[in-house]
Amino acid sequence: MVSSIHTNSAAMSALQTLKATNADLETTQNRISSGFKVAGTRDNAAVYAVAQNMRGDVAALTAVKTSLDRANSITDVAIAAGETISDLLIQMREKAVAAKDPSIDSVAREAYSEDFESILRQISTIVGDAEFDGANLLDGSLTNGIAFLADAGASDTLTVDTENMSLGGTIITLSALADLTTVTRSSHAVTALNTSLDNVNSALARLGSSANRLDSHIGFVQRLQDNLTSGVGNLVDADLSKESARLQALQVKQQLGVQALQIANQNPQTILSLFQGG
Fold it and tell me: What is the domain class of 75-235 according to CATH?
């Protein structure tokens, strides 16, 4: 090796090694402080791009889950209202059957009719109030059901069908003007109530199936979102136990690099000994 006061190859080599160690140490410290091994596109452009796409899907699934939760709430309100209506129809049938008895007097018949008509008005109120967030599945305001988001690409939907329980309709065939003032009208009311009760219970079964389908899909969306989140973590999260061990090793390497540079910087001093007198 040529001895020169202008060029110190050993010092330059030691300096390059120390710079590399310092760069590795900075990378490790950043990973420990942020928790990410890929925090930005500079760290790994391909992995960062994939992770960002997956993060986009996770965010989109949050919107899907919100839509499905709204669907669940709308359906739950409709089911609660439908179950109450079913109970009320049972009460009305009891009164209508009692009013068919030709032996009861006019006072009793009038009492039965008043109770019957009161429950009838209550059913109308329940149907009108079975609304959540502006949507009502029971009042006939929606004819084609309600579609809700089902996937992150917003290309697929889940539809919850409506069940029109308005009085005098296809489900509750009983007229809003029905009463029990005569045996004949009571008989007609019993027939309509039998049909209406069967129809309402069938409608409730359909609503229950829709609710179960929503619950199942919400569970799937949640699992998919969890898996995507876990996948992003596998791509970009730092292994802190590994980084901790690496940090200690790099700190030792840094100290040794500083010492090597110090030794290399002392080499030119040896040239002076060549010119000292004997």
Answer: mainly alpha
- Alpha carbon dihedral 133, 70, 52, 230, in 10-degree steps, equals 150
Beta bridge partners of 147: 159
- Cβ–Cβ < 8 Å for 69, 187: no
Convert the pLDDT of each residue in 219-264 to its tens digit: 999 999 999 999 999 898 887 788 788 878 878 888 888 887 787 7
Q: Where are the domains of the chain?
A: 9-35+238-274, 75-235
d(CA 244, CA 25): 11
Q: Which helix (H) or strand (E) element contains residue 126?
A: helix 106-129
| Distance between CA atoms of residues 200 and 107, nearest Å | 31
Of 180, 209, 231, residue with least CA distance to 54: 231
Token pair in block for residue 244: 């901790």
Number of C-beta neighbours around residue 77 at 10 A: 19
As given in the structure block, the two tokens for residue 60 are 């989109």
CB contact at 8 A, 10 and 242: no
| pTM reported for the whole predicted model | 0.77
Task: Tell me the C-alpha distance between 73 and 224, whole Å.
Answer: 22
Contact present, 225 and 62 (Cβ < 8 Å): yes
